[in-house]
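The authors assume throughout that readers already know how a fold can be written as discrete tokens. What matters is that the chain and its backbone geometry are given together, residue for residue. A single example would do more here than another paragraph of explanation. For illustration, here is how one protein appears when written out as sequence plus structure tokens.
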Amino acid sequence: MQHLLSFLFIVEFCLVLFLFAYQLFEKGLTFKGGISFGLLFFIFIPIWVMILTGRIELSVADFGTTRLGDIFLKDNLPASFKLFIYIGAIICFLYFPSGKEKREGSNSFKIRLGFYFVLYLSITLIVLEASGILEGGNWYANRHDFYESSGSFAVLITFILNACKVLIITSLVFKWINKEMGFYRFLILVGAFTFWDMIFTGNRIFVFCTAIIIAMLFLRKYPKKTIVLIPVLLPIVFFSGYFASIFRHMRGPLFLNGIPTPEVFYTTLKNAIKLDPPEPVSFFLGISESVNVNVIYSIFNEYEHYLFGSTYLKTLLFYIPRSVWQEKPESITVIAGDYFGGPSLVTTIIGEMHMNFSYLGIVLLPLLLWFTERVLKRMLPGYHYFGNILLFFFGILMFRMPYSDEFLVFVFVVLILFFSKLRFKYTRAS
């Protein structure tokens, strides 16, 4: 049975990889391409490690206080079969026709990069000032306290801030693809912005998505050059991926007393390497955030308090203050963290669906993805390939992050695009 499941996982991997390659080279960046990549990276890398080594090891340094544990393939055959079925459901969505994609390079609107950046900078300055970060002390603790005490206002500015980040990154990528910006200038600007965001928020997901978008577009545009450059790029990828992986150990101590000195950075880096040495298995489990799969297996094996869609309703109810409605549904990451112990835990779109609907989720998941793709496309009329980059971005984010959160971020992206148009029209009329 163990060997049969391994074979079935490999078959699914090949199907997803083929679909991803087809989407990339035939259609460019698409929502299905983003979902495919999320599945390949966050799910199949840990699965490959499990097939080759027999288990997915849990990082005790990060999650030792939780009820999560190592996943052994031989001891988790029923849960592995459930995961196989869920992946199969996603594959059904991926192979279902999507219709005609927007043409690369064409657009019927003007990018307002300055508007997106000013809005982002304004909100960032509000957070920096209101949280007291600039006065010193623990950077992330101060920011956390600010969000905890600000209620609905903090929720609102978080969605706007994330929407701005998506728009800034997408705009820079689009300008590079459309030859409105040189590659080196683009690389400096996008690198500086994403690096600052990682430092400011402690979150690596936007750096990751940006790197993937650039890599995929480069591969599509220059496939032969990319293959030739693999020996040169591989060490850079390894180093960057490893640093991003161990940054989770660094971000707290690094900003404990405000902006770190070089000595503090070196000491923090050395301690992080001790916690997570650069070994091949640890590297792949680290960069893929394999704990997400540990969480999925724990949900399959233990979770019985089904939520019946309440986490998806957060999309419609986020603006209601918890002081008014104390029983307002929590984010799926908070619910999973409360159930399994420790911090909030990422469930991926698979775990969230199962926690809500149990086995019915196998049928509902491809329908949800189909519905989401149609809605997102309809919300971006006239945005053409710019919209396709956004959809690929959200395909990755939606696979890994809480569904309601990322859908709301997309809604705010559309609202910002709308208001930037209004601002342009008003200015021109004046």
In short: DSSP finds 20 helices and two strands in the chain. The first helix runs from residue 2 to 27. The radius of gyration is 21 Å. Residues 320 and 327 are 11 Å apart (CA to CA).
